[in-house]
Amino acid sequence: MENEIDNYKMKLDSLRNKIPFTVNLATILIISSFYLGVLNFLLIKYTKFNDSNVINIISIIGMTLLMTICCLIPFFMRKGKNWARLIYLILVAPGLIFYIFSIILNFRLNVILGSVSTMQYILQLIGFILLLMKDTNDWFKDIKALKNFTIKNTETSHNKPISAVNGVPFLG
Question: What are the φ and ψ backbone dihedral angles of 149, each rounded to 5 degrees?
């Protein structure tokens, strides 16, 4: 039993360490896009609006929380968590359609602001496409299949969930 768990851990770690180029590049582009989003936020804030201090504090706190969440999504994608990929795809798909209008407005405000918005859009679009490619889908499916196969075999052959065996937590 212990040997099966060790074998499972080795296979899962090996699969997670062999991140496909598409996932690797997509996560780098997504994180870069988020940093451009911060720059874009600051440029918009200081070129268009002259808010009160309360609104400035609220917007900075909101942006900090949003950036934290947005940077965690690529981290979990690299760990093989398909739910993180799905959340990103669901949240970004509508934004990609309507962001074009924002780019046009940003160019009217400032050429630099429009350029940063355009770069951010391109990075998000490429990351989005990379996360839909065959290599990416196969990698996430392989991780899920390995988890499901190991859990079913371990639970049926020993009547214990894998997370309870020898105090070793499940790597899910």
Answer: -60, -45
Written as six digits, the tokens of 14 are 């090996």
Please enumerate in sequence order all residues whose Cβ is within 8 A of that of 8, keeping only pairs 6 or more positions apart, or say none.
146, 150, 154, 162
Name 104's Cβ contacts closer than 8 Å, sequence gap at least 6.
Answer: 114
| Residue/partner pairs of 160-164 with CB below 8 Å, 24 or more apart | 162/5, 162/8
Instruction: Please say whether the dihedral angle defined by the alpha carbons of residues 132, 67, 90 and 41, taken in this order, is positive or negative.
Output: negative
Give me the amino acid identity at 155.
Answer: E
Euclidean distance between CA atoms 34 and 1, whole angstroms = 44
Question: What is the torsional sign of CA 135, 30, 117, 119?
Answer: negative
Q: What is the dihedral of CA 164, 166, 171, 172, to 10 degrees?
A: 0
Model confidence over 6-61: pLDDT tens digits?
676 677 767 777 888 999 999 999 999 988 888 888 887 776 665 556 566 777 78
Query: Are 154 and 5 a contacting pair, CB within 8 Å?
Result: yes
- List, in order, residues 6 or more apart from 131 with CB less than 8 Å away: 22, 23, 26, 77, 85, 88, 89
Token pair, residue 83, equals 């739910």
Q: What is the mean pLDDT of the chain?
A: 78
Specify whether the CB–CB gap between 134 and 18 falls below 8 A.
Answer: no
